[in-house]
Amino acid sequence: MTGEVVALPNIQPDRLQFIKTETPKAPPPSQSLMFGHTFTDHMLTIPWSSLEGWGVPKIEPYGPLSLEPSCTVLHYAQTIFEGMKAYRDEHGKVTLFRPDMNMKRMNTSAARIALPTFNGDAFLDLIKKLIHAERDWIPREPGHSLYIRPTMIGTQKFIGVAPPSEALLFVICSPVGPYYPDGFKPIALYGTTEYIRAAPGGTGAYKLGVNYAPGVMPQKQAAKMGYAQNLWLHGPEHYLTEVGTMNMFVVLKKNDGTIELVTPPLDGMILPGVTRDSVLALARGHASGSYKISDLPDKLVVSERPITMVEIQEAEASGALVELFGSGTAAVISPVNRIGYLGKDIHIPTGEDGMGPVSRPIWTELVGRQMGTIPSDWSVPVTA
Ligand SMILES: *Cc1c(COP(=O)(O)O)cnc(C)c1O
C-alpha cells in the first residue's frame, strides 16, 4: 500500500438523508419579514474529515449545531459563507441566479483559509433539493425571494492554528422582502480615513467571516454621524474600493458626452461580486452593441480601473459626476447621494426616482433576469 493515493469521497448527492421536521412552521406574512431574521424548517448539513472526506449529506430540521468549545471556528474564525437567492415567478417556477459563480467563489474562499474544497456541482445539486423542499417558503410577492446562506466552519476540537481536520458545510434559508420596499432610497456614505476593510495581500477578495466583524464598529460610528455605511478607501491616494459590504460603481460624463461606468479592478482587495460581474457584462454587452438595454445611454464605455477621491471631488466640481451606486445580492443596486469626506460632504445626483441613468436600466434588466420575466442563461431552474 505504500505510496498509493486513495481519493477520498467528494460530496455525494445520492447518499442524501432527508429527515423531515415533525413541527413544521407556517411562513410569516411577507410584509413582516426583516432581512435575515426568519429561517425555514430545514437545513442541509455535510460533514468533512481529513481521513474520510465528505460524509453523508442530510436535510434535517433547522436547529442548533453541537460544537465543542475548543473547535477551531470559535477561536480563529475558520468560517466562510456565500449569499444567493432563489426566486419564484408568477407560474410557481423556482430559479437561482448564476449559482455556479457562488460555488466557484466558495471554493476559492475555502482554499484561502485551508478549509476543504468540494465539487460545486454536487453541492449545488443538494442546495436545489433543499430549496425544492422549502419552496412554499419563497414569498410570492414581487421583489421577494428566499435568501440562501451556504456556510463552512472548521470543527476540529483543537486549540491550534492549523488546517482543521474536521469541517462542516451547511446551508440555511431565510425568506426576504425587497431591500427597498417603498422605492429606492439613496444612502449617504462616510469615506473613512481611519479604518480599512482590506489590504494588498490580505483577504478582502474572499467571502471569509473574518472580514466582517471588524467593519461593525466603524459602521456604528458612521451611523452616529448620519451616514448609512462606510466607503472603504485604500492607500494615501484614497482609492475607492467598496461600499459597506457591496461593490461600488461610479458613473462619469466626459467632455464629448460619453458616459463612463467605472468600478475598481479585482486587485485582491475587491470581493468579486456576482452582481458586479453581471452589471459589467450587461453594460459591456450594450456598449459593444451585441445586446441592447433600453434607456441605457448608447455612448457608453465600461472601465475596471482605480479611481481616487480626488477624481470624485473634481468630477463633482465640474459637473461630471452622474451617479454612484453599490451592488450586491441583498440590495441588487443601492444608489448613493452623499459622501462625507475629510469634513465636507460631496453631493451626488440620484435622478428623479432615486436612481440614475445607468443604474436604473441595468437594475431593470438584472431584476427581470432574476425574476424570470426576461429569459436568460443566468437563471437556473430548481427542480426536485
Ligand atoms: C458578498 C459581497 C459583495 C457582493 O457580492 P454579490 O455576489 O454580488 O452578492 C460585495 N462586497 C462584499 C464585501 C461582499 O461580502
Automatic annotation (TrEMBL):
GO cellular component annotations of the record: mitochondrion
One GO biological process term: L-leucine biosynthetic process
Alphabetical keyword list: Amino-acid biosynthesis, Aminotransferase, Branched-chain amino acid biosynthesis, Pyridoxal phosphate, Transferase
Recorded catalytic activity of this chain's protein: L-valine + 2-oxoglutarate = 3-methyl-2-oxobutanoate + L-glutamate; L-isoleucine + 2-oxoglutarate = (S)-3-methyl-2-oxopentanoate + L-glutamate; L-leucine + 2-oxoglutarate = 4-methyl-2-oxopentanoate + L-glutamate
GO molecular function: branched-chain-amino-acid transaminase activity
Classification via Pfam families: Aminotran_4
Catalytic class of the enzyme: transferase
Cofactor(s), names only, from the UniProt record: pyridoxal 5'-phosphate
N6-(pyridoxal phosphate)lysine modifications at: K207
PROSITE patterns recorded: AA_TRANSFER_CLASS_4
Signal peptide (from-to): none
Enzyme Commission (EC) number: 2.6.1.42
NCBIfam families on file: ilvE_II, PRK13357.1
Family, similarity comment: Belongs to the class-IV pyridoxal-phosphate-dependent aminotransferase family.
Protein name listed in UniProt: Branched-chain-amino-acid aminotransferase
Organism: Gymnopus androsaceus JB14
